[in-house]
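Possible regression after last week's pipeline update?

I re-ran a chain I had predicted before the update to compare outputs. Posting the input and the new output here so someone can diff against the archived version. Not blocking, just want to make sure nothing changed silently.
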Amino acid sequence: MDLEKRELMKPLLIVMSAPSGAGKSTLCDMLLQDFPEITYSVSCTTRAPRGMEEDGADYFFVSQAKFDQLVAEGKLLEHAVVHGNCYGTPAEPVREAFAEGQSVLMDIDVVGAAAVRETIARLPEDDPLRAGFVDIFIEPPSMEELERRLVGRGEDSPETIALRLQNAQGEMDRAGEFRYRVVNDELSVAYRRIRDILLVRSGEL
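New output (post-update):
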């Protein structure tokens, strides 16, 4: 895909959500490759590292006491409990990236996106995070197409696919909470749309 090379003129806090199978991870990878000034947000978690995961690269691995302290001090943009473990997005690395002129990409679910949206809404009007906040929901062309993609991946059992589709419907029902909605029917077209949204919001287009 031959796109003119551009840079984001100001830091953005980019929140992207989508149902499983909608292609969000691929689109996020394309953004990170195309825009060196975008850094991926690293979450903190109370769970133990798995396999080759590295502290500070894959996650910030913290104790339950430390996580509770971060929550109490309001130092997380969002947090949730998933399968008995706590996950959250530290605000400090995001602000440090902004101070260095970098944008931050958050790949989170609709619940996490709502929590970030609430945090941003409480910030002063002139806060860089509020000024640079962009939330995008990636939609499949249809639930039938989403099911076809999930089956085609060959990774999940029929029961797991049924659960993913059920969850996807719930996420689709909340798509209206996002300022931008992009249908991923053709990957290159969806990516160009996302790219243009970011360039407009950064003042480049």
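Follow-up from reviewer: compared with the archived run. The two ends are 19 Å apart (CA to CA). Marking as no regression found.
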